[in-house]
Design goal:
Oligomer: single chain
CATH architecture of the domain at 5-237: Distorted Sandwich
Shape: globular
Domain Mannosylglycerate hydrolase MGH1-like glycoside hydrolase: 425-569
Number of strands: 40
InterPro entries: 6-hairpin_glycosidase_sf, 6hp_glycosidase-like_sf, MGH1-like_GH
Protein name: Mannosylglycerate hydrolase MGH1-like glycoside hydrolase domain-containing protein
Distance between the termini: 25 Å
Structural class: alpha+beta
Organism: Paenibacillus rhizosphaerae
Strand order of the largest sheet: 1-7-8-9-10-18-16-15-14
């Protein structure tokens, strides 16, 4: 097996993630620890159930003295003191200490806990182990204190990018059971009996919180230990299945391995396997903190298409593509876990849909059956959107980047350039299917690229402009310009002009890339790094790096990517967006994002130079960094296993255990 659960363990002492971003999910339920506590819990989501403000605290009675666990930050006898934690995909393990004199007698306890989201029901398990460090026997009693809060039952159709609205407060109806009109919360535990611990002895107590519909009892015919083990087994099974086609990466370059693993786990935690969802696994955009349990085509197909094709396989990729089409991708930006479309049309959805299918074509050779759907959706945009000559007007911010100023709106280079790319892919499929439309589609693609060059390029400024219907023109130094470069719309002089801004003080900063160049004093701002500056959406910096590798700018690509390595060292998984002038994450944005997979994409398909073709050929052009060794082992392609070993000025390519090339990096075809 290539990967084990422990390969994704993260020491939370090193975390720079905001405390409200730390959650752990099973693919069925997601739960959060209460910050600074050893065993406290705060928040639980498992569609259709939501218990955002549920809180579980523990009091430990030791020789009659109450040792509380509240995260008290004062001095003196503050109760149990938090001493560290480890995050793993299936659990958060915490530890704490209590060492204090009470009435002249020392009480010394070492406490460990495991917080585990349940894998087949709405709820979580908490296991607590208490060790006696005194030189005498003591009596220990664990007292759980549950506050049920407001419980919500929200239909799957209504789960979207934000958190579900709070429900009504639940009231106690019996010991350890709370209920409102929609939801019942049950506390199951074995903590009612005291334990007598000799010096050095310990005891473990387990409890679980489970959500059911009002009036329904929780099924507790199995032991809580079985529930905990099931989450661990399901997570390992998920890793075995989802990572079977993913290569392992080894390197002596500080930070590269960590970044690669954290990129992979960012995708794994977005794959939900709830039996009531429209498909399993269902790729959500975020979701670990209960918000964003919905699918965005842009994130899923646009940033993560190649890795998803490797992780979930061709059959699931085609199921996902059909689900996107059925959700009304031309009318909605995203869709709920039930497959219902949400919100307004989004300008990047079409390209993302095409990229999802084309990624599957390249990796597995399957997807041409979607030709008619792709053709229909592409032509739908032509009819739906106002035309500005050959180019299309994509509307206002809510259809585009959602910047907070008049900027990247209406007739813009991207996504018009992506539209040209889509016509080329449609032409490729038409040729394979003998549909006789290929020349028409290629002519259309070239017309669009020519129009971008002639009508949206400002030669004097060396940048693109955005044209409004009333004649207003905006010049926005946005990272989206590099997507236009990637789509083949730029001449060599245009390329040189664009690349001149990939530098410090413009798009580059010590810890990443800015979505808006710092030189753009009209549009650059620091309160929304997503698309307005001071940082960027996770996936944009990596897409820039991959673009640079693809066009032969390997040194600059590596310079971009390595600025992100702090994320692998200091974040358990990648957030929606991050700052670039400092190693930090906005606490008010989503805690995780499936676009985090784009980091691994940039490494495999950029730096390692893997280029799968829809025709079944694989080309490899490694780009060794100038500062160490890198090995990518076990990339599976059409029944073959490829290894790539790199160091400065050298590469070795191995196919099915046989060295097929060794020497200075060059293009190889397999």
């Amino acid at each position: 097996m290539k990967f084990q659960l422990n390969d994704f363990t993260f020491d939370l002492r090193a975390s720079l993630a905001p405390p409200n971003h730390i959650w752990v999910a099973s693919g069925y339920s997601t739960v959060a620890p209460l910050p600074n506590t050893v065993a406290g819990v705060k928040g639980l989501f498992s569609p259709p159930f939501a218990a955002r403000d549920v809180q579980l605290l523990l009091n430990i009675e030791a020789d009659g003295h109450t040792v509380s666990d509240t995260g008290n930050l004062g001095k003196g006898d503050c109760g149990l003191l938090y001493a560290g934690a480890e995050w793993r995909p299936d659990r958060i393990a915490r530890r704490g200490t209590y060492h204090y004199f009470h009435e002249g007698r020392l009480i010394s306890l070492f406490v460990q806990s495991r917080l585990v989201p349940l894998a087949d029901r709405a709820g979580f398990l908490l296991a607590v182990r208490i060790a006696n460090r005194t030189e005498r026997s003591i009596e220990v009693l664990v007292k759980p204190q549950l506050t049920s809060g407001r419980l919500c039952l929200q239909p799957l159709d209504d789960w979207d990018y934000g958190h579900p609205a709070p429900g009504e407060p639940a009231q106690p109806i019996s010991d350890d059971v709370w209920e409102n009109e929609d939801v019942r919360m049950s506390l199951l535990h074995d903590a009612s009996m005291p334990s007598y611990l000799a010096p050095g002895e310990d005891v473990e107590r387990c409890m679980a919180v489970v959500l059911t519909r009002s009036g329904e009892e929780s099924d507790n015919t199995e032991s809580l230990a079985v529930w905990e083990k099931r989450t661990e087994v399901r997570w390992q099974d998920r890793i075995d299945h989802m990572c079977a086609s993913l290569p392992k990466l080894e390197s002596d370059i500080p930070g590269l391995e960590d970044y690669y693993r954290r990129s992979l786990v960012s995708g794994l935690i977005c794959l939900w396997e709830h039996p009531d969802f429209a498909m399993q696994p269902f790729p959500v955009v975020s979701g670990i903190e209960g918000a964003g349990i919905c699918c965005y085509p842009w994130d899923t197909g646009g940033y993560a298409g190649r890795l998803l094709a490797m992780m979930i396989g061709s059959e699931s990729m085609m199921e996902l593509a059909q689900l996107m089409a059925n959700s009304g991708i031309e009318r909605h930006s995203r869709f709920s876990p039930s497959g219902i479309g949400k919100d307004v049309p989004y300008s990047y959805s079409l390209w993302s849909f095409f990229n999802l299918i084309w990624s599957n074509m390249e990796q597995h050779g399957e997807g041409q059956q979607m030709y008619d759907v792709m053709r229909s959706l592409l032509l739908c945009d032509e009819d739906r959107l106002p035309a500005w000559g050959v180019l299309l007007d994509y509307g206002k911010q809510h259809n585009l980047l959602e910047m907070r100023s008049a900027a990247h709106e209406h007739v813009v280079s991207s996504p018009n350039a992506e539209r040209a790319w889509c016509y080329d892919r449609l032409a490729d499929l038409a040729e394979r299917l003998g549909r006789g439309e290929a020349e028409r589609w290629r002519d259309k693609a070239e017309q669009i690229r020519r129009a971008i060059r002639e009508q949206l390029w400002d030669e004097e400024a060396g940048w693109f402009v955005c044209r409004y219907p009333d004649g207003h023109v905006e010049r926005v130094y946005t990272i989206q310009a590099y997507d236009t470069l990637r789509m083949g719309a730029c001449t060599e002089p245009m390329k040189s002009a664009l690349l001149s801004h990939v530098r410090e003080g413009a798009f580059l900063a010590p810890y990443g890339v800015s979505s808006i160049s710092e030189e753009d004093t009209i549009h650059y701002e620091l309160n929304d790094p997503d698309w307005s500056g001071g940082g960027c959406y996770t996936g944009e910096a990596t897409m820039l790096a991959q673009t640079l590798w693809e066009i032969g700018e390997a040194e600059l690509a590596w310079d971009v990517l390595k600025r992100l390595f702090w994320m692998g060292r200091h974040l358990p998984y990648f957030p929606q967006e991050h700052y670039c002038d400092r190693p930090a994450v906005p606490s008010h944005k989503r805690a995780n994002v499936i676009a985090g997979l784009s980091g691994a994409e940039a490494i495999l398909f950029g730096m390692a130079g893997l280029k799968p073709g829809a025709d079944g050929k694989l080309t490899v052009l490694p780009h060794p960094p100038h500062e160490g060794k890198v090995s990518v082992e076990g990339y599976l392609f059409r029944g073959r296993s490829i290894d790539i070993h790199m160091e400065p000025g050298y590469s070795r390519i191995v196919c099915d255990g046989v060295v097929i090339y060794e020497g200075a990096p060059t293009l190889c075809t397999i």
